[in-house]
Amino acid sequence: MINKPIFKKSLEMRRSLEQNILKFCPLGGFEEVGRNCVFFEYQDEIIVVDAGIQFPEEETPGIDFIIPNTTYLEPKKRDVKALILTHGHYDHIHALPYIIEKIGNPIIYAAPLTKALVEKRFEEFPNLPKLKFQIVRNGDKLRLSEYFTAEFFDIGHNIPDGLGFILDTPVGKMVHFGDFRVNRDIKGNPIGENTFRRLNEMGIHSVFLDSTNADIEGASKSEETVIKELEILFKKAEGRIVVTTFASLLDRLATIIEISEKLGRKVAINGRSMKDNIQIMKNLGYLKVKKGQIVNVEELHGIKDDKIMILTTGGQGEPNAGLTKIANGEHKHIRFKPTDTVIFSSSVVPGNERSVQTLQDNIARQVNEVYNSKFLDIHASGHAPKEDLKLVLELVKPKFVVPANAYYFKRKACAKIAREAGMPAENAILMDNGQFADISKTGFKVTSQSTPTDYVMVDGLGVGDVQEVVLRDRRMLAQEGMVVVIATISRENGRFIKNPDIISRGFIYLKENKELLDAIRTKLKHILGRLPRHQHPEADYIKTLVRDQIGQLLYTKTKRRPMVLPVIIEV
Amino acid sequence: MINKPIFKKSLEMRRSLEQNILKFCPLGGFEEVGRNCVFFEYQDEIIVVDAGIQFPEEETPGIDFIIPNTTYLEPKKRDVKALILTHGHYDHIHALPYIIEKIGNPIIYAAPLTKALVEKRFEEFPNLPKLKFQIVRNGDKLRLSEYFTAEFFDIGHNIPDGLGFILDTPVGKMVHFGDFRVNRDIKGNPIGENTFRRLNEMGIHSVFLDSTNADIEGASKSEETVIKELEILFKKAEGRIVVTTFASLLDRLATIIEISEKLGRKVAINGRSMKDNIQIMKNLGYLKVKKGQIVNVEELHGIKDDKIMILTTGGQGEPNAGLTKIANGEHKHIRFKPTDTVIFSSSVVPGNERSVQTLQDNIARQVNEVYNSKFLDIHASGHAPKEDLKLVLELVKPKFVVPANAYYFKRKACAKIAREAGMPAENAILMDNGQFADISKTGFKVTSQSTPTDYVMVDGLGVGDVQEVVLRDRRMLAQEGMVVVIATISRENGRFIKNPDIISRGFIYLKENKELLDAIRTKLKHILGRLPRHQHPEADYIKTLVRDQIGQLLYTKTKRRPMVLPVIIEV
Q1: Lowest mean per-residue pLDDT among A70-74, B190-194, B367-371
Q2: How far is CA A150 from CA A26, A137, B327, in A?
Q3: Cβ contacts (< 8 Å) between A567 and chain B: which residues?
Q4: Which pLDDT does position A493 carry in this prediction?
Q5: What is the CATH number of domain B22-218+381-463?
């Protein structure tokens, strides 16, 4: 009896300590641009924020996209009380169909446009369970669960309905800004400083800060400036105007349509994703246009050139997108004319430089003028650069800042900004995907706890079935190609029954290189002919021998290292 | 007798007409950045300018590089009287070992540094014939052949010894600027305007103008500005400084070494190409440093951190280059320290963004500060932007301008600049690789004559043996991988002798997908089992059937399209 109370007390104490710890963990977005997904955990309650995809890169050839790894959340899916979506971009919502069931189909808190974009996405997945939405707007304050309350506020980004939120927790107020920039008026003065001042008055424990542009000097450009510059280009154009941008830049789409209306040009939209997004904005009343202002591409022939503006997808040189089809003369209704003006109103995604250049060359040969973002800054980023971030930190004055949504290099730049804004160096928390932090009322400490965040890749119908070994093979095949050598051998006497078959792809054109073919066959016979009879020719050891020796032969003769695949058939 | 004189006269007239035509043709560099090579032809004399490589891009995976297609010159190699090299960059000289014999090993006119760099390159090709050099310098005027004389003049670029030249021909004076920019003093005023004024006084027929930066607004930045900015970074650093840049930016290397000397830091050079180039500059007296100023990396441990500057290759994230080795802890003598400052003083080559980002992330975790060209403009381009080009055209006042050394888009931008400089639109000549122009005393006309300029690709030991089909296979293998299906069939009864072998690479990991393996085997037996007995199973028709049906099966099951390679073995 004497030990029990003590034991009990210590358990209680431990509990009470535990109860005062909020855990935070980023599942994605902290070592890349994309697959944004983080969560907060307090006792048996979890709040997840965003569920985005990452687009494939050089290292992941052939992959459709990468989604957050939810290994940690799956056994705890009953604990997931809410999924907050900050805005409707792919890198924040598009992984949802793949993970919503894994995290227990929780209530989704989202603004109207975000909700509409998620619903559009889910049309492609008819077999998934119905989503449970709670629409939220600027100023809404809702209890998410026993321990968590969220208050939402508008932030500036390049899509309407971007929301930040204050997560009120037992250890203090956490503020997540989603993707954001500081909007400014035409003179460059920030708009909405009051939001930040109010946060300061509330006393903020930690802010989670979009660091995408933390390494860019200066402040955000006013959207008015962009509009002005676009208007100048529009007014110069004597024939048709064709503008290409990302379908996801909904603010920009609206701007371009409004300028066209103002300058008396009808708008035709070319590209399904763009049409969908504009329709969604119209449905929600976020885009108001006169009746007849938007026309079908089929109706363009009846309109004078200087009354036409065509908005199109394909500005990244994607093979089947709208602009590429027009440029290649493959579009059903639109051909370029020598009097056209084409405006690329979007930055080039790294890796697409060459295809964009080829596309612009192709178009430049057919039209009067091609403008890209180098000529005029017709692309203002949706992410806060250095001066914006500094301003926010100086106004909000949080105790801690967690640079988020970017590579380490950019997050480190954000940490440096925090120091410049007067915060102690140790209060800028740099943590990687999969690391956990313990947040107490007064502290923010990265611990040794972690969860796997290996890439989960979506490729065709498969989710997670493409592994590193497959990607390594793809990269190798892309560089050097491969050679399959097939030996058909008699089980009785070990002799070759027929001349070895040799197939190559992506190596050199072997049909035209008989000498090399002969050398491979001779080598193969040599290797297999010298085997002691007790060796089984299909054994891995023999295959390795063939692979190495044929590989060496090919390297000596060509200085290339194709993948060699030996097939030995005993009959 | 009556016809003969007339015939003779018409022949003479024709000849005299022909004699007044100078032909010009670009073999490379007019639809890409790289493989620069153009030639002038007058009667039986040909002058070739530059012989550069183009680096491989997305569309040419695994290729080492691309060289100019010299099909037109090969049968005329006796006519090639001279090869002029404008400067020593790879995209102007590195194809030389592959084409020098094909164009008849003519006399090479080059400045001392250019010659030294070519000789360095040829050390890797010991079996080639000896090169015949004629060293040229600013102001030299030489007769190249009966009809051609060349006068050389200094131009500004980012490598010493860049030369432009006036080619005096029977139809007029052609001026080729090579790669160039307008050097400026610290106040931004152009240096060397007199060169351009003198050209005007001579009366120039046509200029061939580097358009690489024709789409960039503004004027070149003074190198002094760059030096000042670098000095600021150097003075801020409290520990060691590590600078990475291209080994080919010889001016920048010299600048960095001079600043280090001035600020009392010893210089260690890490990377063979950089060491070679610095040694070459020292040998020629183009770089003067105090004895003991350059030390070996092995000696660094005896020097205080704030007296060290390490210059290294690897700024593009190349796997085996100097900086990558240091960052990965694989370097024999150098490890990063938390007090280091690392400066990336080179722009990112398109396509390398992700590997550079990964490298910078990796380094940012180990050192105090990482600067890249986004932070400070520590990279000034070697190519003239818009205002420079305009200035040159306004001062030189040529009759014609041929925008050169860039994509169509950029060359079109240069043509527009020519109009702004007061030239008639039709006097800016836009021509593509392989097109010929007839140049007369008063005209410049692109004709229908052309020569092939298909990519000649160097891959390992092979030159020109990698063809489009090989590249297409590599691209496909990289995206979807491949599946080899092997059926071993009895010649007697058409039955399967053994279970079909299936090998895949870069598809999905088939070992873990038994169901799919079984489905492929069943399908294969089904296809081949139903063949009429008179069909030969190794026939192409059967292989196509297998390829299509297995391909369809895989697509239905996985929504992927790997390359299917059927092997049917009859025994």
Answers
A1: B190-194
A2: 19, 11, 42
A3: 484, 486, 501, 503, 567
A4: 79
A5: 3.60.15.10
